Each structure stands twice: as C-alpha cells, then as structure tokens.
C-alpha cells in the first residue's frame, strides 16, 4: 500500500506562527492546479503501481480552492493510479472556507475525512495566531460537517499560546469532547525562525511563549484524552479506537508515498525527493516536463535514525528484534545499549523487545531519539 500527498500552497493570509510553504496571493492558482495534474501523470511510475490506500490534500489551505480544481486533481489521480476501494481521502479545511455548498461538493466527489484547522475555540487566541476565523465559525462548521455526514473528522488544536490560560485550555478540551470528534491533533506553539511571531516577540510587541506553560498544557491534554477513551498513538495525535489517521500512520510506519505540488516530499522506501519551494519555478519545470526535484538515496544509517525518530514518537515504539532484522547486529547492540540509561531514568519502558516512551519521555522525545542516532562510522 502507498499514499499520495497533494500540497496546495495557498492561504487567505499568513498565520503569525506559520513556516509551511504557502503564499497569500492566489494569482497563479489555476496554473498551479494544472501543473499538479500534469505532475501526477509525470510521476505515475514513482509508486510502481502499488495500490493507493490514502490521498491527502494538505497545505496551505486546500479548502480555499474551488471544487472544479479539486475534482480535476481527483479525476487525474483516479484515472492514472490504482486507488484502493475504501481509500481514505482527507482534505485539510479552514473554518472560514467551510460552507454547506462546499461540504456537499466534497462529499459528492468522494472526500471522506476532513481535517479542520480550529486551533482554539477562543477569539483571543485566534487573534494572537492571526487566524482568519472566529470561535463561532469554528463551532458552527464542525456541526455543519457532521450534519452533512462527515463523521471521520479531526481537528487541530494549539496549546502553549500566551493568551491561553490553563482553565481556557481545559475549556477548549471540554468543547472538543462535547463535539464528539474521533481524532485530535494537538501541537505546542513553537516560535519558528523568520515568522511574524518570532519578529513580534523579538520586538516586544507580543508576549513570548512560556515553555513551562506548554509542558503543563501537554500533561493536562494527555490525561484528559486518556480519561475520555482516546489512544495517544503519536506525540501530537489522539484518536478513539479505530479512528487512526491512516495517511499519517503509514508515514510513521515507513510506507512509501508520493508528494505532488510545490515543496511536496516523496519517499520510495529507500530514497527521498522534494519539489522546489517556489510556485513559478514549479510551474515552469512541469511545463518543460522536467521534475522540479532534489533527491537523496538514504543510507542504512539514515533509515535506522528515521526508524528510531518516528517509532519512538508512536504508541507502537521501536522493536529491537525488528532493528536486528532490518539493520543488523551492530545497530541492535548500539540501540539496546544506549537506550538502557533512559529505561533506568524512567523515560522509556521495555517489554518483549518493544521500547516505548513514558509520559516523561514524551516531553523529551526528539532529544532522546537523537541521542540514540548513529552517525556514519557509528
Ligand atoms: S492556514 Fe495553515 S498553512 Fe496557511 S498560513 Fe495558516 S498555518 Fe500556515
């Protein structure tokens, strides 16, 4: 099985914290959509005819584009790839774009999962983040989506926002529970370099992000989701049993995927490639029928490091037997030796060769994984 990711690099306005590749001017939007269809045909052999189990429209803001463009991309994919029956087809949607007309059109064209960028149910936080929508719209669009028959829904929430007190964060979680949504992605607000947020904090115009507040929100989140029957299946992702995001889970489990559109990344199982992060360059390259890509062949060391990084972030953890089989004895010995100190300090559990992060370990997931990385030459 394999997946296809389609990157729609347009947004109504730039959120203050965002460092994804997207632009707020839609001048080249129609040409970009045509180029994505063209790229889908050019890249037809990348996944070697594997059945496609998941399609994911991400961005940027896919809900911004009109349904005829979306339909054209879907038709191109359906006619040139073998889409598996029951494939998961996700569309990222922002509350301000969601109308009854669009919901009906998305349903009619076979989109069966919506990922709604709520971020917060409070206007104060939405203003801090420079989101377009308000809290009423966030609530209304979720209910409208559910009434239209979109029950496979996920929402994004952000915690650690300076305007979000602990009580307010718990309030956001309570509202989420009341809406009966089966999947939630929750992220700590991070201040990325060269974002508007970074500049405004540096100039003293915005309150800085407090790490201790983020940690406290994360702990409350994990407890709340657990108390309400959600599986914490990846550091930032929670679902009711059976409602895993199939597309993202396949990433974390090392399945191949093809990325289409400016800046999209692809993974073949042993190599990566990524499209140029420039809309004009992307359109020009596709019009010349050349791939706008850079690529790299992954070494065994890189594949091992990725396995450790992504595996530890999930509830399935890393398996020492699998490491021995896939990467060999040296990697096995390094892994089981180096992880011992984290078991002793209560950050990792070990059972039947499975190694998983404890709640304390999850707070240091990336640093802990990089401590287990192997460099070429070990
Ligand atoms: S809508 Fe998403 S992709 Fe667009 S600017 Fe905001 S965070 Fe970035």
List keywords for this structure.
378 residues, alpha/beta, TIM Barrel, Arc Repressor Mutant, subunit A, 16 helices, globular, binds iron/sulfur cluster
Could you describe the 3D structure shown?
By secondary structure, the chain is α/β, with parallel strands linked by helices. It is built from 16 helices and 15 strands. Strands 7-8-6-5-4-3-2-1-9 form a nine-stranded mixed β-sheet, sandwiched between helices. It has a three-stranded antiparallel β-sheet with strand order 10-11-12, with no helix packed on it. The chain has a three-stranded antiparallel β-sheet with strand order 13-15-14. The two termini are 33 Å apart.
- Helical fraction: 40-55%
User: What order do the strands of the largest sheet run in, or round the barrel if closed?
Assistant: 7-8-6-5-4-3-2-1-9
How far apart are the termini? 33 Å
- Structural class, by secondary structure, is alpha/beta
């Amino acid at each position: 099985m394999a997946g296809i990711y389609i990157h729609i690099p347009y947004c109504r306005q730039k959120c203050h914290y965002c460092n994804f590749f997207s632009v707020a001017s839609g001048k080249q939007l129609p040409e970009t959509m045509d180029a994505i269809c063209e790229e889908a045909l050019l890249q037809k052999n990348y996944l070697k005819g594997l059945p496609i189990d998941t399609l994911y429209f991400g961005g940027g803001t896919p809900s911004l584009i009109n349904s005829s463009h979306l339909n054209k991309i879907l038709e191109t994919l359906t006619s040139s790839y073998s889409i598996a029956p029951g494939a998961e087809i996700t569309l990222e949607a922002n509350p301000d774009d969601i109308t009854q007309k669009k919901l009906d059109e998305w349903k009619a064209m076979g989109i069966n999962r919506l990922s709604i960028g709520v971020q917060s149910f409070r206007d104060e936080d939405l203003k801090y983040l420079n989101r377009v929508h308000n809290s009423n719209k966030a609530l209304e669009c979720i209910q409208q989506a559910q009434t239209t028959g979109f029950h496979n829904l996920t929402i994004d929430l952000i915690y650690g926002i300076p305007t979000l007190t602990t009580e307010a964060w718990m309030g956001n979680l309570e509202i989420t529970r009341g809406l009966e949504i089966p999947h939630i992605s929750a992220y700590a607000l991070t201040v990325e370099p060269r974002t508007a947020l970074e500049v405004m904090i540096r100039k003293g115009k915005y309150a800085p992000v407090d790490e201790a507040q983020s940690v406290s929100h994360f702990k409350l989140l994990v407890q709340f989701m657990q108390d309400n029957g959600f599986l914490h299946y990846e550091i930032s992702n929670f679902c009711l049993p059976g409602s895993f995001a199939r597309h993202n889970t396949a990433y974390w489990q090392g399945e191949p995927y093809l990325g289409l559109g400016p800046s999209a990344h692809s993974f073949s199982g042993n190599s990566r490639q990524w499209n140029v992060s420039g809309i004009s360059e992307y359109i020009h390259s596709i019009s010349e029928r050349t791939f706008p890509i850079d690529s790299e062949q992954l070494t065994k060391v890189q594949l091992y490091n990725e396995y450790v990084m992504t595996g530890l972030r999930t509830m399935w953890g890393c398996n020492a037997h699998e490491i021995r089989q896939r990467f060999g004895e040296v990697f096995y010995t390094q892994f089981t030796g180096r992880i011992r100190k984290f078991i002793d300090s209560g950050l990792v559990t070990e059972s039947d060769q499975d190694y998983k992060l404890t709640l304390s370990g999850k707070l240091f997931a990336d640093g802990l994984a990089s401590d287990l990385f192997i460099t070429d030459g070990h």
